[in-house]
Design brief:
257 residues; alpha/beta; Rossmann fold; 7-stranded mixed sheet; 45% helix
């Protein structure tokens, strides 16, 4: 008897649906200079319709909503969307609507949105190029597009360590892309980049693991990788005795050409 088929999109929805409340409440996701900048751009643009692509805990949607006519929060996980809708109600943000769907096949017509943003989501997308092409399709010409994510270092040694610990912690992880990769993919999709802001996030190891409920054998494997990491890796990521470390991030501001 053959094993049941398990698609990546289903895997992502299952993993994050079970942790929906923790992502809504996550301090790492709920604040940051990148989120403040997204809100600032929306305050300037005042979009009639905005899209939070791969909304997760909904923090981009919450930042957009006071400055937009309507905000659509899209995610693969129905449980995540239910948590976002509930939190929007608690915050008094009735202009947030939720929609289930994949970034690679958006359920919206062409040029439907005046602004598009995605934050800490794309490293779970199986096909980032398809997702960016879809984002460009549903964005009106001239619409701002803001992409925030964890980024991989250009150095292969550092990149390999990052991808390994990310995948061990969360099997729905696909890839953290480097800034040059992001710039090439955005240009290919039809976006013109006008601003790049680099940042770093300190990840508390215990919280990072608990948020995804990583099984103990995989936690042990991550700690073994950290313990045997060469000095270059330990220095770059600021590895602490308790496993805490730094992640590199970027906020890329672009415009639909």
């Amino acid at each position: 008897m053959s094993a049941p088929t398990r698609r990546h999109e289903t895997h992502v929805a299952d993993r994050f649906g079970a942790q929906a409340a923790s992502y809504v409440a996550s301090a790492v996701h709920a604040a940051g200079a990148d989120l403040d900048r997204i809100a600032e751009r929306m305050r300037t643009v005042r979009p009639a319709r905005a899209l939070d692509l791969g909304c997760g805990g909904g923090h981009v949607a919450f930042a957009m909503a006071p400055h937009a006519g309507t905000v659509t929060a899209l995610d693969l996980s129905p449980d995540m969307l239910a948590a976002v809708a509930a939190e929007a109600g608690r915050r008094g943000l009735p202009n947030i609507a939720t929609e289930a769907g994949s970034a690679a096949a958006l359920p919206f017509p062409d040029a439907a949105f005046d602004a598009v943003a995605t934050r800490f989501s794309a490293h779970h997308w199986r096909d980032v190029r398809a997702g960016l092409a879809e984002a460009r399709r549903v964005a009106k010409p001239g619409a701002p597009a803001l992409v925030a994510d964890i980024v991989a270092p250009d150095d292969a040694l550092l990149d390999t360590h990052l991808q390994a610990v990310e995948l061990l912690r969360d099997p729905s992880h696909v890839r953290d892309y480097s800034v040059p990769e992001w710039l090439a993919m955005l240009a290919e999709a039809g976006f013109t980049v006008d601003r790049i802001t680099h940042g770093r996030l300190r990840m508390d190891f215990a919280t990072w693991i608990a948020r995804m409920r990583t099984p103990e054998p995989l936690v042990t494997a991550i700690r073994a990788l950290q313990a045997t990491a060469p000095d270059e890796v330990a220095h770059h990521f600021g590895l602490a005795p308790d496993g805490s470390f730094w992640l590199d991030t970027v906020l890329i501001e672009a415009v639909a050409a």
